[in-house]
TrEMBL record:
<dbReference type="Pfam" id="PF00583">
    <property type="entry name" value="Acetyltransf_1"/>
</dbReference>
<keyword id="KW-0808">Transferase</keyword>
<feature type="domain" description="N-acetyltransferase">
    <location>
        <begin position="1"/>
        <end position="142"/>
    </location>
</feature>
<keyword id="KW-0689">Ribosomal protein</keyword>
<keyword id="KW-0687">Ribonucleoprotein</keyword>
<dbReference type="InterPro" id="IPR016181">
    <property type="entry name" value="Acyl_CoA_acyltransferase"/>
</dbReference>
<dbReference type="InterPro" id="IPR000182">
    <property type="entry name" value="GNAT_dom"/>
</dbReference>
<keyword id="KW-0012">Acyltransferase</keyword>
<dbReference type="InterPro" id="IPR050832">
    <property type="entry name" value="Bact_Acetyltransf"/>
</dbReference>
<dbReference type="GO" id="GO:0005840">
    <property type="term" value="C:ribosome"/>
</dbReference>
<protein>
    <submittedName>
        <fullName>Ribosomal protein S18 acetylase RimI</fullName>
    </submittedName>
</protein>
<dbReference type="GO" id="GO:0016747">
    <property type="term" value="F:acyltransferase activity, transferring groups other than amino-acyl groups"/>
</dbReference>
Amino acid sequence: MTLRIERVTDAATVLRGAHLFDEAIDPAATERFLASPTHHLLFAYDDEVADPMYPVGMISAAELTHPDKGTEMFLNELGVDELAQRRGIGAALVRALVDLAREQGCSGMWVGTEPDNVAAQATYRSTGSDSSEPFVAFTWEF
């Protein structure tokens, strides 16, 4: 496998990776996301597959700035094509995001995941993260 990770800057590329997201791609949300310099979307490509423009993984994140914490990178979503899982693609995307967070001057990076999502937890631990604190999430849906 020859992995290539690139930042996504246009909606057409996002659509080529629609299979990597949890929900259907919303064109207006895509344009808004891509327009913000503090939003980041990276796609992973395996140059050894039949179509080198077919993304096999993605990671999305946003820089969050707070008056007393500075700027942190929030890892919003990580997705790897089912046929490409368990090959280190998710970990490579996380490491690329860590590098980007450092380049952007972030003081740290964080992510939340479900307690039973063993694969996600293993991926994050393999990249140097340690979940030393319990995490509780509350959500509001509108």
